[in-house]
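Q: What would this complex look like in 3D?
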Amino acid sequence: MDHLLPAEILEADRAFPGALAACADLDALLRLKGAYVGREGSHAARMMDLLKVAPKEQKRDLGAAINGAKQRWEEGLKVRQAELEAAKKQLGALASSWDPALPPPVPARGALHPLNRLMDRLVEVFRPLGFHVEEGPEVETEAHNFDGLNIPEDHPAKASSDTFYLAAHPELLLRTHTSPVQVRTLLRVAPDLEKLGGIRFLAPGRVYRKDEIDPTHSPMFHQVEGMLVGHDIGMQHLKGTLEYALRALFGPHTEIRLRPSYFPFVEPGCEVDVSCPLCDAKGCRVCKGSGWVEILGAGLLHPNVLRYAGIDPEEWSGWAFGMGVERMAMMLSQTPDLRLFFENDQRFLGAMGGLD
Amino acid sequence: MWIERKALAAEIPAAAALDTRQLCELLASLGFPIDGVASREGGDVLDVDITANRGDAMSHRGMAREVAAKLGQPLAPLAPPPVAEGAPRVPVRLESPACPLYATALLSLGSGGTPAGAQAFLRALEASAKGLPAVDASNELLLRYGHPTHAFDADRIRGGVTVRWAVTGEKLVTLDGVTRTLASQDLVIADEAGPIALAGVMGGDGTKVTEATRRVLLESAWFDPKTVRATARRHSLHTDASHRFGRGADPAMAAVARDLLVDRLRSWAGATLEGAWTAGSRPAAPARVTLTGDLLTRVAGEPLTLGEAAEALGRLGCTVAAGSDALTVQPPTWRHDLAIPEDLAEEVLRLRGYERIPSVLPPLEGPPQRLSPDYRHRQALARRLAHLGFHQTVTYGFISPEADAAFAAPDNAPQGRTLVNPLGQEYSVLRGTLLASLKAAAEQNLRQGAREVRLFEVAPTYASGTKGPAERFTLGLAWGGTLGGEDYLSPARPVREADLSGIALDLGLAALPQVRTLGEGLFGFEIPVTDLPQAGERIIPAFRPFSRFPSVERDLSLLVGLGQSYEALAGAMRAALPAEVLQDLRCVDVFRHKSLPEGRQAWLMRLRFQADRTLVGAEVDGWMASALAAAEALGAKLRA
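A: Here is my prediction, written as structure tokens for the whole assembly.
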């Protein structure tokens, strides 16, 4: 009997299930209800108008068709309404339990690792001085790790008691410091050094030495290497840069102190102390009452390091420093045991690392 | 090394005016930091840290030279009664250039013992006094003057003495009682029967001085540093003697130390000199080094006069010839470390005091370089994950083969990533995966009572290759435990795989990574960092026009099988629609209920269309019909 219905009503009837499912909330459903079975202007109202003017012999069948459609629609609307009401109730239950007096839900909070945070901070304080970041692989060649750094052939650090070597590749090792990044970077930039106007960078990273794991030793730890190459670079520039950067790090009243020391890849070499940041140099447990803490080793680049990279030490000169990240982190945080940094307990990470 | 204040002052009398603290500061300023101070035998002893290049400073006399140079004060004279040399009483043959000089003396011992003062000195420095004058005097001389000597029991030496390379496989029982099998690169002192000492390292047990010894043959030689270092390392035998010879002893001290030893044996043990003689001659002096005024000024950071430099170097024992713009410097016999002009510049600055170095910022000579996109990307990634509630871990790069095999790619053979000398089997393979380390850390956290654990690490993983392990930065995540339930609005539920997939999508991964089950209710995935979308090199990307016309949103409720793949369905629907107008397609609701046909669920798909014009209802209807047809082709039905 549906053939008696006009095309637009049949089309509306076909579209009804889709339109019904598309109602995401009760408002939408109400609008749909209005459009199909509302008192005025709806498909149902139009059908009733049709019925009024229909020829008498069609009235019965048309009425049945109209009723069938209306019933389908009303039934559909009812089921969907129940569905949407149930969903709304669930939401409502949640909403009604909202209580401004109770603590609100707080999103979970993660943390950066304290060692990474400290390295980031170091990069941050050197950035304004024109330093960028260079990186290198952790698996290195003997040439980059030792030879290019003026470390003698028979240096004890090369022994398998000190350095990890790869079984399948006897010439490869786990870098024992971040200094091979110096060698790689110098080799890379040597042809363009004049055009670049020298180079200055930090090289943060992980390094490996064959130390047993105990409260002050770890076979893996982190270093931050710093290097600058330019014209007529002397000890005054090393001191000036470190003074600036360490004041940026620890505060404007920080003092630094250079003491002579020795590393094969620098000459002159020095250790750098900083006025104790924990007690303002008044003397405490950390600085053992001296007011100073040792913070890094540094020096002017040994001419052999420049020569190895094909850079003329008569024309270019520079400085480098190397800093132990764990050591500094332990000093600043007074963490009693190095192993805590590698246990990755969330309580430690959350408290020590956190977010900037 | 331990330095006794009293003994130091005996070498440099001016040091007596300094108290212990002043002395420590003075030594530190010269490059000899003090690791500790102890009070022993009625006086202070200082634990002085001496860098490997300064073998010459490893004695009281050596340290006194430094203090004297700094203070500009004289050293106490070192002039033992000279011993007259004569014809060799025992033939000494030097067969290797590694021992160019061998001074000796033969004495018969009388009676007497090590004086109390010398014994106290030895005890103060943590060296044991044996009560045998020949042994104690040799030790005392080494600590006081830095030159190692040795006393053999002369009556136990057969025939002459030869300094030669060992024959491979030769045996020597050293003083510590250990039988050493020698290599041809070991330099030995030998008699007719075989080796009697490892040159510059340790004496032999068979010829050692005992209480029964009546006659002693003394040795005060100079051995090649490299040879001594190699032998000490080969036999893991690091001794006071090998430390000093290995860093370069003072050849001029060979005869002096012999004379001092003779003098002590005469006075301590009533010894009689039977003869003294020297084989060979001193090795060549260190080469002369030229220091220009330009280099000195560049290193120092301020103009220093060559006159000032010459004066400082002179105080350190150098012989200096001044030219108009350079100094020609002959380092003293004890300084093997002064080889290049920079070494001399350092000495001048050191004596002047590093505190006087000016502080200057280096001028920028070129534009600063930017941080590399890779580095910035990793930093941003770490921050993002931390803000998503994850904790950044730092774990070792080497793990056990078993842990590695559980998660590393099957084609990544561990052999190419194995260490030859690991700390232990559990640290023997460079990891091909971060998941093993994250699993361990996560489980540790859960064991410790964490309700929920969210960890990530950004670190290299290694893939075996013919040229060695290839290294690439990898992101690994682990998430497990119970989510929510910690406030009254968020119901508790276990962490699911889908939670990690959500993170992957949030990070912008086009394809979902394989989420692995790491443990009970613990999931993780890892991907190379380069798989993640990265901000381009451009400061701001090129402008891409976007439509200002309104978008049209339509929903489609589909009945699909319970096993329907979302990717397949969404892919088919996308493929059926013009890409330039389809802005978004997603499933916004899932409905499962017994009122639905058996084995079916309802997915409410939401589609959003937009174009550079106002969309007409009819064309959107057409697209929706296409989308439905594509879904129906996969067995979906419109939900009625």
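A: To summarize the key features: The first strand of chain A starts at residue 132 and ends at 133. Chain A touches chain B through 107 residues (CB under 8 Å).
Q: Very helpful, thank you.
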